[in-house]
Please model this.
Amino acid sequence: MILIMKNLGLSCDFDNYYRTDSKEYRALTQATFIELWKNDSIYLATRPNNYDWVTGTTIADAEIIYEELPTKLVHMKFKTKDGEVIIASTRPELLCACKAVIVNPEDVRYTDLIGTKVTVPISNQEVEIQAHHSAQIEFGSGAVMVCSYGDHNDVALFRELDLEEVVAIGQDGRLTEAAGAYAGLKPKQARTKIIEDLESKGFIEKIEEISHRTPVSERSRTPIEIIPMEEYYLKQKGSVEKMRELGSQIKFYPKMHQQILMNWLDSIKIDWPISRRRFYGTEIPIWYCKKCSEPHLPEPGEYYQPWYLECPAEKCSKCGFTEFVGEERTFDTWMDSSVSPLFITKFKKDEEFFKRTYPTAVRPQAKDIVRTWLYYTLLRCENLTGEKPWSEAWIMGYGLDEKGMKMSKSKGNALDPLPIIEKFGADTFRFWSASEVNHGNDFRCSEQK
Ligand SMILES: [Zn+2]
Model:
């Protein structure tokens, strides 16, 4: 990267750069966490969370993308007292976690059934038919099964209807004992198997092949599962209005990409889960008392590795016990990169320098990380300084190949700029980018051009 910049003739101080995984940088990430902990912005909670079982960790809503994937919409027969109700679902493997069936209160087909019980096929539990406006009259038969957890609507419904959750999928991404005969299978395998069983037992009315908007992990590209996990959260719901105000003060180039931030702010429903079960990352600086579990945080300023360093406190502040166990989880990587404006302005290190340089002038970045890098930086810097981190944001589009496909290393269609600069010279390259690229929009690249 630095070599490309040098070859393009950029004038920078190339010896003065930062790495978010350096000791100094990680010490800042940890110091900001300790500060937010002290002012009560961090809390621990067990909640249904987006879980990427391939990488084995919780992920934030901002790390989810939606893909249209082909799937089967299975219309199943649920027995009522003297008949049956048809319920369509793309996740029949979650039947064991079904705790209610909902129908729209205005759906006259079901008025008489509200408050009565139906029997869930295969797993055989009895659940109540309840009226709820989120059931869409025109989707499937209009009756919907509520399972822990098929999607985010299920999470909201379990809370609202006060249902007791069943953990049907474990942290290994496989069905749990709760799934009976399907325990140990991956959701897709269990789906195939349970469809066969439903069919042989006469519980299927019909199966439709549909394309379904499915939440997948941006990192592993596999459908996420929603399972209850205990994680640390950074409060963000209460800051949405403030972020909207700051976001509107920042000058976006081009102006249209400000809307990506505003749309994201409109969609924030939960606080930010910041702990991850990954080995590589900045450690969460906490030690717990072995006797009473009281958390102990060190003084900010140093880089701490609690999984192998001794707790700086000699005894527990609550019970006096002298043994501790270090936290093993790490931070979401955006916890690091969201304080870069504070690192470069020597926040908490050189008061004089910080005063002169913060807020900084401009954030240059790509449009796909507005809801992560840009938003989280805005949130964290405001939390810690009360001010916005920069006054301008330069948002770039993607480089596309000749066919208009987004360039990526994994697709093998990325162009390395270095040989091109060497062949044609930096001036030619700069002239091409100035004339070809409409700032903020996607642009096609090829050696020919
Ligand atoms: Zn203790």
Q: What stands out?
A: The chain has twelve helices and 21 strands. The chain has three domains: 23-61+228-395, 63-217, 397-444.
